[in-house]
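Page 37, continued from 36.
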């Protein structure tokens, strides 16, 4: 861990040697969307209309030493009409030396959705009635990353590492943010995440990630998570598979959920240039250690598996994308016999 931190600090220091940049280009992009949702996590979530307008401000340029830089920040609306500037990043391209990036609510390295199947978006990540326990990703806190240069390794192999110096730090931080005082926490004070991806043959992409924390007070189980995936595209077809594990930080395993195991697969078909359809099946299994009986020498484990099936249809019409997203969940929220359904109808325009 100390070696990783020192390496990142050396790279950051090297950038300060020559950081004079020429005037950069500024651009604005975004999307305008409207949705009509039926159903949800409870019966009271019957019907709802929503309109969003997300703006992304980007700037880029080149420094005197040949390095490149890019910056972006987003203006995101929230329920109730408020809007905030967030999801900011400053990325320095160093050519053959790779890339260094500074991220605030950005730069996620988790590959929990690496299989990437969905006509509108990846499976239930596009819209779900429950929160799936995937584990950690560095984008939940301000982080710094180093990426190997593209095309350095054979078979399209690339690697990235991200480091969170303060897990207690919030998002939307301004320049010279001091960060809150770190206190001993169960999950940990710092975090590191590694990501490796490759494209060994045409149409095939594979990858994995691993996330862990340090300096936590957990005594029975440390916080860690990881995922691996594969996706293969051929003609109008695309298939994908994902597997992930998440172990929460624990001081006592007795009666606690000790592991989440996630499995996802899907298939997507482009009927033509305008119409695409997809199907996903996702399962998330929670394992709980049952209390040890007074007369027993060891305890037992119970599992509850939430299963989610998703159908999506996307149709491009006159420059707009019309979408249908239907999700059916069994044992929702890791509760046996709790079923939920949701349908979302959308229209969106990019600009």
């Amino acid at each position: 861990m100390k070696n990783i931190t020192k390496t990142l600090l050396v790279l950051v220091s090297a950038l300060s040697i020559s950081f004079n940049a020429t005037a950069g280009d500024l651009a604005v992009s975004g999307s305008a969307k409207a949705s009509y949702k039926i159903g949800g996590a409870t019966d009271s979530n019957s019907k709802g209309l929503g309109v969003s307008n997300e703006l992304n401000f980007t700037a880029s340029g080149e420094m005197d030493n040949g390095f490149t830089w890019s910056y972006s920040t987003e203006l995101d609306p929230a329920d109730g009409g408020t809007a905030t500037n967030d999801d900011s990043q400053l990325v320095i391209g160093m050519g053959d030396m790779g890339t260094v990036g500074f991220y605030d609510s950005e730069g996620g390295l988790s590959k929990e959705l690496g299989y990437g199947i969905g006509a509108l978006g990846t499976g239930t990540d596009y819209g779900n009635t429950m929160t799936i326990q995937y584990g950690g990703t560095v984008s939940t806190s301000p982080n710094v990353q180093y990426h190997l240069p593209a095309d350095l390794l054979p078979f399209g192999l690339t690697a990235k590492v991200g480091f969170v110096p303060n897990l207690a730090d919030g998002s939307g931080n301004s320049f010279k943010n001091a960060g809150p005082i770190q206190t001993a926490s169960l999950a940990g004070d710092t975090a590191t995440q590694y990501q490796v991806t490759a494209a060994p043959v045409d149409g095939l992409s594979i990858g994995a990630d691993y996330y862990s924390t340090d300096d936590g007070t957990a005594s029975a189980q440390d916080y860690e998570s990881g995922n691996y995936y594969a996706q293969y595209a051929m003609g109008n077809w695309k298939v994908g598979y994902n597997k992930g594990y998440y172990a929460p930080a624990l001081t006592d395993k007795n009666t606690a959920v000790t592991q989440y195991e996630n499995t996802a697969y899907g298939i997507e078909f482009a009927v033509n240039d305008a119409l695409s359809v997809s199907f996903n099946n996702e399962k998330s299994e929670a394992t709980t250690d049952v209390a040890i009986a007074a007369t027993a020498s060891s305890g037992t484990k119970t599992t509850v598996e939430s299963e989610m099936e998703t159908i999506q249809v996307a149709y491009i019409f006159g420059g707009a994308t019309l979408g249908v997203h239907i999700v059916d969940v069994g044992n929702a929220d890791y509760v046996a016999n709790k079923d939920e359904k949701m349908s979302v109808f959308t229209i969106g325009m990019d600009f």
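The chain has one domain: 2-171+189-350. Flag for discussion at group meeting. Residues 9-21 have pLDDT under 50 and may be disordered.
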